[in-house]
């Protein structure tokens, strides 16, 4: 999907109700997982591979990144929106860059959060290329937290087998979703790149459509107390992660992988990063 389409998507989200409780829920789900899985990562710089949440809401995982963290997105409008929402005092470095041609120097990142960033490519080849480019930035011992749409979830399976244009016109899928992998396929791809898979699970178990509908319905008359109650209710569903049925209820699969050795890349990189939000993007790409 082209960068200019994401420009329109982010503009639409910024002008619509913010769904603060749903965004706060997703932030907390990711932050809880990051606290668990990044605890053993070596010290150093952390990268987030898209900035959509940062562009549309104050509730986003990067809010808890260590100082000097990096964020990357293919849309200059998304990066500019994220820049406006992030506190400059935290020293974030925001890049406009194609995930399939990452400018990050190999072996310079201690940890990477790739939260459903690779779910928006049209072809399997692009998905493979994006994963290879992203993980090349990890230092030996570095940790990747990867999430992908969960094809075992019945609603995700149904969505993936219905025409995107129809779902988009009905307002059920506001942006393009593309290829994804099963847990087995994702593990195989990571291992082929020299990473060791340490953990896997399923996250985001609150029923998405009803929760978003309820959040939207109560936007105009919500009190702080009601918002807190909704957030607690959504987070209560995360107990389902501990059940054998978690891959049927979770919206995303989550995998923790460790870079076990330095890798050679198919091309040389001469820069640590690409353009910032104040400059033009390198090229239009999927988010």
Short description:
With 287 residues, this protein is α/β, with parallel strands linked by helices.
Q: Rg, please?
A: 18 Å
Q: What's the CATH class label?
A: Alpha Beta
Beta fraction: 15-25%
CATH superfamily descriptor: Vaccinia Virus protein VP39
Determine the CATH topology. Rossmann fold
How many DSSP E strands?
Answer: 7
Number of domains: 1
Low-confidence stretches: 266-287
User: Could you spell the SSE succession in H and E letters?
Assistant: HHEHEHEEHEHHHEHHHE
Which overall shape is indicated by the principal axes computed on the Cα atoms?
globular
Question: Mean of the pLDDT scores?
Answer: 83
Major sheet size, sense and barrel closure: 7 strands, mixed
Return the CATH architecture: 3-Layer(aba) Sandwich
Share of helical residues: 25-40%
Give the helix tally.
11
Break the fold down into its secondary structure elements and pairings.
Blueprint: H1 3-15, H2 20-37, E1 45-48, H3 52-56, E2 70-73, H4 76-85, E3 93-96, E4 109-115, H5 124-135, E5 138-149, H6 154-160, H7 164-169, H8 183-192, E6 195-203, H9 208-217, H10 224-236, H11 246-249, E7 252-259
Parallel strand pairs: 1-2, 1-4, 2-3, 4-5
Antiparallel strand pairs: 5-7, 6-7
Helix pairs in contact: 1-4, 2-10
General description of the model:
This protein has helices at residues 3-15, 20-37, 52-56, 76-85, 124-135, 154-160, 164-169, 183-192, 208-217, 224-236, 246-249, and strands at residues 45-48, 70-73, 93-96, 109-115, 138-149, 195-203, 252-259. By secondary structure, the chain is α/β, with parallel strands linked by helices. It has a single domain (3-259), classed as Vaccinia Virus protein VP39 (Rossmann fold, 3-Layer(aba) Sandwich), CATH 3.40.50. The protein has a 7-stranded mixed β-sheet with strand order 3-2-1-4-5-7-6, with helices on both faces. Helix 4 links the parallel strand 2 and strand 3 (93-96). It is globular, with a radius of gyration of 18 Å.
């Amino acid at each position: 999907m082209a960068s200019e389409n994401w420009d329109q998507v982010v503009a639409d989200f910024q002008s619509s109700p913010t769904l603060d409780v749903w965004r706060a829920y997703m932030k907390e789900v990711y932050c809880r997982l990051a606290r668990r899985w990044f605890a053993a990562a070596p010290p150093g710089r952390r990268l987030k591979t898209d900035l959509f949440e940062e562009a549309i809401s104050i509730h986003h995982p990067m809010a808890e990144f260590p100082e000097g963290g990096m964020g990357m997105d293919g849309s200059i409008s998304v990066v500019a929106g994220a820049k406006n929402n992030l506190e400059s005092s935290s020293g974030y470095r925001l890049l406009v860059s194609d995930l399939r041609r990452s400018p990050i120097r190999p072996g310079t990142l201690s940890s990477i959060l790739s939260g459903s960033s690779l779910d928006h490519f049209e072809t399997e080849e692009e998905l493979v290329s994006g994963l290879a480019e992203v993980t090349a930035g990890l230092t030996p011992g570095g940790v990747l937290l990867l999430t992908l749409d969960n094809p075992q979830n019945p609603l995700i399976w149904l969505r993936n087998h219905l025409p995107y244009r129809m779902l988009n016109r009905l307002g059920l899928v506001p942006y393009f979703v593309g290829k994804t992998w099963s847990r087995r396929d994702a593990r195989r791809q990571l291992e082929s790149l020299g990473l060791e898979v340490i953990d896997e699970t399923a996250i985001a178990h609150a029923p998405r459509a009803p929760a978003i509908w309820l959040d939207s319905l109560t936007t105009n008359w919500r009190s702080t107390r009601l918002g807190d109650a909704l957030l607690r209710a959504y987070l209560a569903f995360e107990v389902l992660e501990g059940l054998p049925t978690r891959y049927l209820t979770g919206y995303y699969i989550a995998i923790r992988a460790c870079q076990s050795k330095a890798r050679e890349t198919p091309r040389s990189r001469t820069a640590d990063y690409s353009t910032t939000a104040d400059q033009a993007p390198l090229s239009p790409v999927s988010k």
